[in-house]
Amino acid sequence: MKISLGVPPGPHARPLAQHAENLGYDRIWLFDSAAIYEDIWIHLAQIAEATNRIGLGTSVLVPSLRHVMSTASAIATIERLAPGRLACGWGTGMTARHTLGQKALTWKYTRTYIEQIRALLLGETVEIEGQPCKMMHHPAMGKERPIEVPHIISAFGPKGVAIAREIGDGWIGSMDPPEPFDWAVRMLPGTVLDPGESPYSERVFNSAGVWHSGVWHSTWEWDRDTLPSIPGGAAFLKSIEQNPVEPKYFSVHQNHMTHLNEADRCAYASIDGKPEWSVWVGEADQILEKAQEAQANGVSDLLFTPAGDYLREAEAFYNAVKSLQR
């Protein structure tokens, strides 16, 4: 089992990466959502220069946020700074595009973009917006082609999983893999409780609660009419509807996966602050048991995505599961 850490690119990213490297984590992955986080490539470059061993990753890149040549050049830059340490995760951009009022990308668009990236990095010429393009960097101005990095794809339905199988080097997602992959990365939020700590303490809400609230955020986007049937959903919906801020998705995704927003707090209050956690919450032995179950279900890389006190969370999780590491 590989043990990885996933965080938003922001002020805490570099010191957290250094801490993760010292602890023994295999890789640190940064998220890509321009409306709520800082730039992923700037922070990856900073981490590359501030660390020596730990792998780097993107979980996950959203093709529509950048021109394909810009992304190819960014990948080449990280490969020059940290040769062989980068892995690129890709997705259709559900949350990242929802924060912009857009739907997720089509798989056709996403596949074409990834295939263009790979070709450009190999030094090939590809057609982009009706014109032939290639990376023309002089050897003194960037890493020479060919440049090869692994690409893993976030997919859940049969079409996306088939594309991950056809053009990817692995799979990444927020559940156990839907079918066997040699490299299967499971993103998992939550927190390791201190011995005897309540699973509903303020600390837990500022860590695990930030991620559990994604249930309301995603349901608002995908199936809004069912929100009232979800614990806390009616209060969440009422808070969004009463908020004068327009468009409504601004309020829904405010502080997404980093801090609780007003609607999240209303939802938790409506269920007396005792949700049935959708994320991993438990003492160290319980977290280890969950990790062993994930491993048995085909997960080869545990990607822990903390919030709150990032340094504390990273250390507690690693210590809980490090016996599985290889």
Automatic annotation (TrEMBL):
Domain of life of the native organism: Bacteria
InterPro entries: F420-G6PD/mer, Luciferase-like_dom, Luciferase-like_sf
Keyword list, A-Z: Oxidoreductase
Entry-linked Pfam families: Bac_luciferase
Coiled-coil regions, chain positions: none
Annotated ranges, domain Luciferase-like: 13-185
GO MF annotations, alphabetized: oxidoreductase activity, acting on paired donors, with incorporation or reduction of molecular oxygen
Protein name per its UniProtKB record: LLM class flavin-dependent oxidoreductase
Protein species of origin: Parahaliea maris
